[in-house]
Amino acid sequence: MRLVIVLLSALLPLAHSQAPDPFAWLFGWSQRSYFDSLRADIKGGACPEECDCPHSFPVSMYCDGRGLTAMPAIPSHIKYLYLQNNAITAVPDSALTNATDLVWLMLHYNQLRSEAIGKKAFVKLASLERLYLQHNNLSSIPSNLPHSLRDLRLNHNKIEKVTPADLEGMDNLTILYLHDNAVTDMSTSLKDLKSLTLLDISNNKLTKVPEALPEHLHQLYLESNTISSVPEDFLRRFTQLQYIRMAHNQLTDKGIPPNTFNVTGLVELDLSFNKLERIPPVSNTLQHLYLQANQIKEFTLGSFCSIVDVTSFSTLRTLRLDGNEISPADIPSESSLCLRVASNIEV
Ligand SMILES: *[C@@H]1O[C@H](CO)[C@@H](O)[C@H](O)[C@H]1NC(C)=O
Ligand SMILES: *[C@@H]1O[C@H](CO)[C@@H](O)[C@H](O)[C@H]1NC(C)=O
Ligand SMILES: *[C@@H]1O[C@H](CO)[C@@H](O)[C@H](O)[C@H]1NC(C)=O
Ligand SMILES: *[C@@H]1O[C@H](CO)[C@@H](O)[C@H](O)[C@H]1NC(C)=O
Question: Smallest Cα–Cα separation from 252: which of 243, 260, 264?
């Protein structure tokens, strides 16, 4: 039925000029919505020639993959704006002044440099929830981003620093992608992010775990940095953390305080490609532990089970220990009691 209405509304101008029609009641309905969206176009500005504003999605504007080098004019009723895969080099302060209803703004895969983004370019977008700026050429996070953001993607840029002002007041931010940048310092920039559940800062230049990590995180991705130690009790504050990835860092035994990773709730812990010589104690509720390519010399069963009996055993399913300094012969025979559900142990 929906398809029929869409087809009929496409034929409307033609149908309109003809004699009375048995489907007039149907035209009456679609005619109204056709002219409503036309009116909306005229009131807030027309759809620019280089973009598509389909009548079936009157609040969306598609300008992706068209070789644009500058921002198009944006009718004021548009909520979802697709500008990815172009060669846009600048977002001046004036570019988005009319577009105050925007909810999604997709600007990924362009050629934006920080100097070419107006200090107030995004400031009026009070309803903006998704801002995609990944795969550009930014050296800092744009100023005055709206506090309404929920999903902010800045990965694959050249960002070196994240300051507290950059992410201030973003109470509703849930997803933050900063991976594949050159971040050395985050200061306390994460402190306001009460709703953040996914933080990806892998592939940067961090030498330590960022301060003030939000306590509702579910996923924390820090791999491929140069972190050599973690703060005492840094996981205690989290109640919902399930995935920690810290592969490809410089972690040593000395840098990991006792029981750091023995916290319940964790599902996956990836510490592969570090410099550990011992297996750190983990909670018996952990399911996947990646320790390959470290310098582990001993299989310490006590890291998984401090006692073993009928009710107390590890729920570990995956254990990767390949690329260390132990061999299958180093695994004590009692392990089958402790690691009784492990289906995938690689040594
Ligand atoms: C904003 O809207 C005004 C009035 O409709 C129009 O003159 C102006 O060109 C628009 N600016 C942009 C950047 O779209
Ligand atoms: C990024 O900027 C640098 C100079 O700042 C330039 O050499 C390079 O071509 C730019 N890359 C892209 C993808 O625009
Ligand atoms: C966060 O979301 C709530 C509920 O949707 C909304 O009422 C509130 O204004 C939002 N906060 C900001 C800073 O936009
Ligand atoms: C983990 O901590 C609990 C109590 O918090 C303790 O009973 C258990 O022995 C510890 N596990 C290991 C492997 O040290």
Answer: 260
Say yes or no to pLDDT of 73 above 60. Answer: yes
Q: How far apart are CA 245 and CA 199, in angstroms?
A: 11
Residue nearest to atom 1 of ligand 3 (CA): 172
Nearest ligand, CA 289? 4
pLDDT digits (tens, 9 = 90+) for 86-101: 999 999 999 999 999 9
Using CA atoms, how far residue 336 sits from 99, 156, 249, 313, in Å, is: 62, 44, 31, 10
For a substitution probing ligand 1, which of 47, 98, 102, 125 has the most ligand atoms within 8 Å of its CB? 98
- pLDDT at residue 44 in the model: 65
Please give the model's pTM, rounded to 2 decimal places: 0.86
Q: Kindly give the distance from the C-alpha atom of residue 167 to the centroid of ligand 3, in angstroms, as a whole number.
A: 15
Q: How far is the CA of 189 from the centre of ligand 4 (A)?
A: 33
CA of 129 to the centre of ligand 3 (A): 10
Measured in Å, residue 80 CA sits from the centre of ligand 3 at: 19
Report, as an integer, the average pLDDT of 125-130.
98
Ligand 2 lined by 111 (C-beta under 6 Å): yes
Among the listed residues 30, 53, 33, 49, the one whose alpha carbon sits nearest the alpha carbon of residue 41 = 53
Tens of pLDDT along 171-207?
A: 999 999 999 999 998 999 999 999 999 999 999 999 9
Burial 128-165 (b: 16+ CB within 10 A, else e): bbbbbbbbbebebbbbbbbebbbbbbbbbbebebbeee
For residue 310, the model assigns a pLDDT of 75
